[in-house]
Amino acid sequence: MHDHRRLGRELGLFDTDPLMGAGLPYWLPDGAVVRHTLEEYVREAERAAGYRHVYSPVLGKRELYELSGHWDHYRDDMYPPMELGGEQMLLRPSLCPHHALIFRSRARSHRELPLRMAELGGMYRSERSGVLGGLTRVRAIQLNDAHIFCTPDQAVEEAAGALALISRAYADLGIRASRHRLSLPGGGGKYVADPALWRRATALLREVLDASGVAYEAVEGEAAFYGPKIDVQITDPAGRESTLSTVQIDFHQPERFGLHHIGPDGARHRPVMVHRSVIGSVERAVAHLLEEHGGAFPPWLAPVQLVVLPVGADQEERAHAVAREATVLGLRAEVSGPDEGSLGARIRRARLVPYQAVLGAREADDGLLAVRLRDGRRPGVLPVAEFLRRVGQRVRARGTALWDPA
């Protein structure tokens, strides 16, 4: 059973410092590579699906969160206001109010809908000290978030598209959902009081789930304060379940913010907001990937994808040339030379690197590499150019496979 906290420190991915504070991890160089690669993967997938990216501030006036409903329904999870120039400013607990303001910053036509707005943005949650741990529960969160502004008739198709995007990402990352949950409101005053909108949004999400064919169960008390949601649940090796990805249909915030677009009839119409997150927070996603794969990330995500292993000092110059060639092709390559120990010791140390290329005297003279894969397979001795082409092809294809047939 893998613990991402131990692995993250052993592999030099992230750490914490009491002077920074609990729940505020920092990313080391190899961890930053994983995070950056994951973020770029999501941005690329979103661009291909028709999303446009924005940036918005991590601060907002208290009035903004009063308007959105966060202050009334969510303040226990928010940081206290800061007094700045006679105004109360808050670290944002969510990106949706900012995106609603961006939508209403100018007049919108029905021809622009669905408008898919995405951001990898920071947000902050005032988590209790007792629940903080590693990357799974943190106070500063980098969230893969998006909001689709659409007509009510488009909401089911857009939510279904978001669910499909989540499914594709899980396949590329080599993880799986343990279950899908339709999260509904429970008792108490933490939810906005508008039964008609709740029923309408719930009916649309049920339609999405039924059409997708995935099994799901409805659970009361797990909804967002403004609407129901589909939660894509994951389970760690210890059997603990958590939410990684979500899809929500929201009628509440468009009404609160007075959002509208001009329809084909020339009249104003209220859009629907579909909230969705493909990988949730980057922190929780990396924690789950570490535990799922034991640090052996899929080849496209690995911090080091190729290690070149010269047998002796005479092959070191050639090994560095191969590593430079790999780097030019966009691969993350390193050389592990004989000054770092015996060949066997270096191979064992590189056990999590997807591709190992051993370079002896014969290989150096003939422009070849003796190829070893992380899983123990040995595809044989290949010309450098062919090997790098095949590794590059596998990395660009993403997914979890290490090697394609010739």
Walkthrough of the structure:
- There is one protein chain.
- The chain has 406 residues and is of the alpha+beta class.
- 35% of the residues lie in helices and 24% in strands.
- The chain has 13 helices and 20 strands.
- The protein has helices at 4-10, 29-48, 62-68, 70-74, 96-103, 155-173, 195-212, 252-256, 282-293, 316-328, 343-349, 361-366, 384-397; strands at residues 14-15, 26-27, 52-53, 59-61, 82-84, 87-91, 115-124, 140-150, 179-184, 216-220, 229-235, 241-250, 261-262, 268-269, 272-277, 306-310, 333-335, 355-359, 368-373, 380-383.
- The strands form 5 sheets. Strands 3-7-8-15-12-11-9-10 form an 8-stranded mixed β-sheet, sandwiched between helices. A 5-stranded mixed β-sheet has the order 17-16-18-19-20, sandwiched between helices.
- Strand 16 (306-310), helix 10 (316-328) and strand 17 (333-335) form a beta-alpha-beta unit.
- Helix 1 (4-10) crosses helix 9 and helix 6 packs across helix 7 (195-212).
- The longest helix is centred in the first third of the chain and has 20 residues, at 29-48.
- The two termini are 35 Å apart.
Q: Quick summary of this structure?
A:
This protein is α+β, with helices and mostly antiparallel strands.
How helix-rich are the residues, as a percent range? 25-40%
Largest sheet: 8 strands, mixed
Mean pLDDT, as a whole number? 94
User: Strand percentage, roughly?
Assistant: 15-25%
Strand elements, count? 20
Would you tell me the structural class of the helices and strands?
A: alpha+beta
Low-confidence segments, ≥5 residues, pLDDT <50? none
Nearest-angstrom radius of gyration? 24 Å
Note the total helix count.
13
Question: Strand order, biggest sheet?
Answer: 3-7-8-15-12-11-9-10
Shape: elongated
How far the N terminus sits from the C terminus, by CA atoms, comes to 35 Å
